[in-house]
Design a protein that fits this description.
257 residues, alpha/beta, Rossmann fold, 7-stranded parallel beta sheet, 46% helix, SDR_fam, SDR, NAD(P)-bd_dom_sf, 3-oxoacyl-[acyl-carrier-protein] reductase (NADPH) activity
Length: 257
Amino acid sequence: MDLGLNGKVALVAGGSAGIGLAIARDLVREGAAVSIAGRDPGRLAKARDEIRAELGAEVGTRALDVRDTAATRAWVDDVAAEHGAVHIAVANAGGPPAGPTGAFGADDYRAALELGMIAHIAFVQAALPHLRRAGWGRILLVTSETIREIIPKFALSGIVRPGLIGYAKTLVHELGPGDVTVNVLAPGYTATDALLADLTGDAEAETARVAAEAGIPLGRVARPEEVAAVGTFLLSARASFVTGTVQVVDGGRSLGM
């Protein structure tokens, strides 16, 4: 299936590993020019080399913290200057620490808000003028299933992330007619480095245990590429009438309507 992404220019924040890297790979396969950003230069170089070896293509890299608004804006503008346009913005960042509400102080809540909501919005605001200028754009906010269903042990995530739904839906109406869409991708338990780092023993057995404890009907956690496939579709020309949505990818765990 041709997703209509050949020649598009894409920015993927948090693109050095996990779901972000899997989305970047998909975009490269579809013929897009891709730049990935992340905090760790070593992980960025490893991701770049993996894509080069696997797909025979080059991706741009930029070491930055997405909470640094000026650095993020400079990345966006530099990529636009290099390629002549920006069409796709994937806002993605790590999540706040796990724990109940009482485990955190006011500064922890502020930090979670900065990472889980404000950094995403600032990145999108930096990219929007370029998307409007190009006359075609896709914005994807990568968050968590906690944006739709509260999981008490992930209190910070469930408190700060839902604001992105309000932002996305409001932005859709502000954008109005045209071909710029805004969607939210909400993964459930996924075999990313963050999840695997907390496990001991056989990874397959341990992730199956996590899935059972979480009540995932499919009996396993997601692979990053499975979540990325949904995100890449939302970024495609095929999804031209899909905007303002929250797409949960959780293996059927959520019971909400």
